[in-house]
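Practice problem 4.
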């Protein structure tokens, strides 16, 4: 055995490892979205490259390369299609106005206009949501777009799968998209094979596609979108699994919210799905999009997709804009309360200027680290007069926003850094006092099943609890 050659090989390997670590540290300095993240990655990569480098390759980046170019292709093509067809959709578009700085900023972030003339249906909990989706799927005559973060091969999954398969056999074009990390078991399931055999076009979102994304496990396509024939779209917090119907005995009642939108705003949901499909398959949707939209209601709706490919942290800025624009109320319901520094400061300032700031989270969050982080941010908000409620009627998974008396949001984005920076999300922002009133009544009912947290409760915690909150806060950027 030539020990000298082995020593040389080891030396060259260590030199290459350290060079890769230095290059990664420079990338972290240039591209990290926060100074704290850049400092943390730089120190760890230079000091412990053998451990830090593989971790950085998997979790270090927060920009998803390649997707933005695909989104541009879809958006340009959709604009051409709109211009080639009738003016019916044009008359429903809400112009961007300097008189409404909130909407001006949100329009620019969403990269699509808001539309008037929509009808909204608020769907509370799983039975109402999936019964409504199934009724919509049964009415499909041309195409179905079906996307969820989690799809399980269980009773609910098979029920929906049979319906999608039947529709495909009838000649309806059915496109099903799922996140390969969130739906790990579905990727190898019998249900997936049956859908393929029935003629359903099925694809994983494929977050690791592209040379720059090869090792990344940090990104998730967290969207839940169903579209039927361009007439109806469903967006909200539910995934496809029996637990979302409250059938998991360990979890118990699952509290969630979805919404159905009918009208010209459905176009926004179609565009978001089409972009995801193009990324996943490298081929466009083969459907005859009909941009001649009726106006069945009175709601103004902005479909707000957000993703980690963009220059801005769109979901975080959406929440931030809603908070700073609030005049008398901002209520947020989310399974996670792990905001970044800027959004936390906006909440504190809102509370200090007299806005009714309320955050509702589950009493038993998803995991101990999340639970401790929730408590840490709870303490900050309570100190300036904000209110925090812990829902005790089961596991609360809804993602709902209520601003003043006219704006409500229902979607997939959690109130945490992962949704702000790392996930693909989508939210319906609805300007309509009547719909906002429905959301208010729903949240008031939820608040009645919640416990309001006071500072005294936190002050009574033991010393180790305070230390746990501080440690959990360190993981806030990736929770």
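Answer key:
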């Amino acid at each position: 055995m030539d020990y000298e050659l082995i020593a040389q090989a080891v030396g060259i390997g260590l030199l290459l490892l350290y060079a890769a670590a230095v290059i990664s540290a420079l990338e972290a300095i240039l591209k990290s979205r926060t100074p704290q993240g850049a400092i943390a990655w730089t120190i760890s990569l230079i000091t412990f490259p053998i451990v830090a480098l593989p971790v950085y390759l998997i979790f270090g980046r927060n920009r998803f390369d390649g997707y933005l170019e695909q989104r541009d292709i879809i958006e340009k093509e959709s604009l051409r299609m709109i211009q080639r067809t009738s003016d019916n959709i044009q008359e429903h578009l809400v112009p961007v106005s300097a008189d409404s700085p909130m909407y001006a900023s949100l329009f620019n972030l969403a990269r699509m206009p808001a539309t008037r003339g929509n009808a909204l249906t608020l769907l509370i909990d799983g039975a109402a949501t999936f019964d409504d989706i199934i009724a919509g799927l049964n009415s499909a005559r041309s195409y179905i777009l079906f996307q969820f973060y989690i799809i399980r091969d269980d009773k609910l999954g098979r029920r929906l799968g049979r319906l999608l398969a039947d529709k495909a056999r009838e000649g309806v074009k059915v496109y099903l998209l799922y996140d390969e990390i969130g739906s790990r078991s579905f990727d190898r399931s019998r249900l997936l094979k049956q859908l393929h055999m029935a003629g359903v076009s099925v694809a994983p979102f494929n977050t690791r596609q592209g040379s720059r994304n090869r090792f990344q496990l940090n990104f998730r396509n967290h969207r839940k979108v169903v579209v039927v024939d361009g007439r109806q779209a469903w967006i909200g917090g539910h995934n496809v699994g029996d637990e979302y119907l409250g059938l998991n005995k360990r979890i118990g009642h699952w509290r969630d919210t979805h919404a159905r939108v009918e009208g010209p705003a459905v176009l926004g949901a179609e565009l978001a799905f089409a972009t995801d499909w193009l990324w996943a398959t490298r081929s466009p949707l083969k459907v005859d999009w009909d941009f001649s939209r009726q106006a069945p209601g009175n709601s103004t709706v902005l479909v707000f997709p957000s993703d980690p490919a963009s220059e801005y942290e769109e979901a975080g800025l959406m929440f931030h804009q809603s908070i700073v624009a609030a005049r008398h109320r901002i209520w947020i319901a989310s399974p996670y309360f792990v905001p970044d520094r800027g959004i936390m400061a906006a909440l504190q300032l809102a509370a200090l200027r007299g806005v009714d700031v309320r955050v509702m989270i589950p009493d038993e969050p998803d995991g101990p680290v999340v639970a401790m982080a929730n408590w840490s941010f709870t303490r900050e908000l309570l100190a300036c007069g904000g209110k925090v409620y812990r829902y005790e009627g089961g596991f609360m998974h809804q993602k709902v926003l209520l601003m003043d008396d006219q704006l409500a949001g229902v979607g997939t984005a959690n109130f945490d850094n992962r949704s702000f920076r790392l996930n693909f999300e989508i939210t319906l922002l609805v300007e309509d006092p009547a719909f906002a009133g429905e959301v208010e009544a729903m949240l008031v009912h939820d608040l009645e099943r919640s416990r309001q947290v006071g500072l005294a409760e936190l002050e009574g915690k033991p010393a180790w609890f305070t230390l746990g909150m501080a440690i959990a806060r360190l993981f806030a950027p990736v929770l």
